[in-house]
Specification:
With 216 residues, this protein is of the alpha/beta class. Helices cover 30% and strands 23% of the residues. It is elongated. The model has no long low-confidence stretch (mean pLDDT 90).
Length: 216
């Protein structure tokens, strides 16, 4: 008997008493994938974890989001911004009223043109409290992926009802986007990397500044 036959023999002997061949049905597990993880305050956890990644997070009632978006952009010196076509019209008006030059992505801006724009403002698909992560599925209010990778500042508005407890719950929310073949971008703080001496450098692979508005 060679090693292969010995291994297969042991597997066969180990399965002699198994009646249900489907492992999911054979071993009952008291857990449901996508079930929310209990936590005292899911919104506060999202804020804390997102801030831990060096993002600037502000909470505001939905009616005050437009003004806050404009104020946060001017606060970091943004002079120009690109806005996805499906973004809230009120945000667009507030940004323009603040004296910030607004660019549209139709027709699509080139990489060189995007590189000359200070910031991008988008909505979001999901916010994950446990990890402080924001997920984009690049719907009309988020725009194509290049918009959120090239400009130096990204301001993202996340609705309170989009915040979930953990990654499995988020994956459940994203099923429709995945089925449709949409790309997903997972953002955990500003883009950053470090060398072998752990010297942190921000902005290498994407925006170096992440601003987040949690709309309640």
């Amino acid at each position: 008997m060679n090693a292969r036959e010995e291994i297969l023999g042991r597997i066969h002997n180990g399965l002699v008493d198994v009646v249900q061949l489907d492992p999911v049905l054979d071993v009952a597990v008291d857990w449901e994938y996508g079930r929310a993880t209990a936590m005292p305050d899911v919104l506060q956890r999202f804020v804390e974890m997102t801030e831990d990644y060096r993002a600037d997070v502000r909470r505001a009632p939905a009616a005050e989001v437009a003004g806050l978006v404009a104020a946060m952009l001017t606060g970091v010196g943004v002079g120009s911004v690109v806005l996805p076509a499906g973004l809230d019209a009120g945000w667009r008006e507030a940004i323009a009223a603040a004296g910030i030059t607004v660019h549209d992505d139709d027709p699509q801006l080139s990489r060189q043109e995007l590189n000359g724009i200070d910031a991008v403002v988008t909505a979001a698909a999901v916010g994950i409290a446990e990890t402080g992560t924001i997920v984009l599925d690049h719907a009309a209010d988020q725009g194509r992926r290049a918009l959120t990778l090239v400009p130096d500042t990204h301001l993202c508005v996340v609705r309170a009802d989009q915040v979930v407890s953990d990654v499995p719950e988020a994956v459940g929310r994203l099923t429709a986007a995945v089925t449709a073949g949409n790309p997903l971008t997972w953002i955990s703080g500003p883009s950053a990397t470090s060398d072998i001496e752990l010297s942190r450098v921000e902005g290498v692979h994407g925006p170096r500044t992440l601003l987040v508005v949690l709309a309640e």
